[in-house]
Design a protein that fits this description.
11% strand
Length: 158
């Protein structure tokens, strides 16, 4: 769906210096919902798979990338971490044999992270826990119309 004047909320094009009380309530509810779902997913992954959510996200991003590899800067952007944060995380995953660093052929100084076969196996196992949690803490709490509306709203925010 395209963003036209007819599909935008009445105030979507206007900026305010400060949100109203109702707008702040919506903002806070959004933050609480994100935090609650993220905490629940993280707790389940750690309890059942001994894998933090950020590590799971790195494995997913690499699994979905061409040749199961991404430049470190691309990986940092994909998982919403700083370059130093993703470097430390890849260090831990590399020690566990889940990820390997490799040179970027087109750039002598570039470094990429590559998902190993062990990392792909670990991701497949952990995804059962994660996807079950996504269903339980998110999908099953909303009907189809709410899910479509949330997707549309979230896409506009991105």
């Amino acid at each position: 769906m395209t963003d036209t004047a007819a599909t935008r909320a009445p105030d979507a094009g206007r900026s305010r210096s400060a949100p109203t009380s109702a707008q702040l309530a919506a903002w806070r509810a959004f933050l609480r919902a994100h935090a609650a779902v993220t905490r629940a997913l993280e707790a389940e992954l750690i309890a059942e798979q001994d894998l933090p959510l950020a590590s799971y996200d790195v494995l997913v991003q690499l699994a979905e990338a061409p040749d199961r590899r991404l430049r470190m800067t691309e990986l940092a952007d994909a998982v919403l971490l700083s370059r130093s944060g993703v470097t430390r995380l890849v260090d831990r995953l590399e020690k566990g044999g889940l990820v390997a660093r490799c040179p970027v052929e087109s750039d002598g100084r570039g470094v990429a992270a590559r998902l190993t076969d062990a990392g792909l196996d670990r991701l497949r196992t952990a995804s059962r826990t994660h996807l079950r949690g996504v269903a339980r803490h998110f999908v099953n709490r909303l009907d189809e119309a709410e899910l479509r509306a949330l997707e549309r709203i979230s896409s506009r925010l991105v």
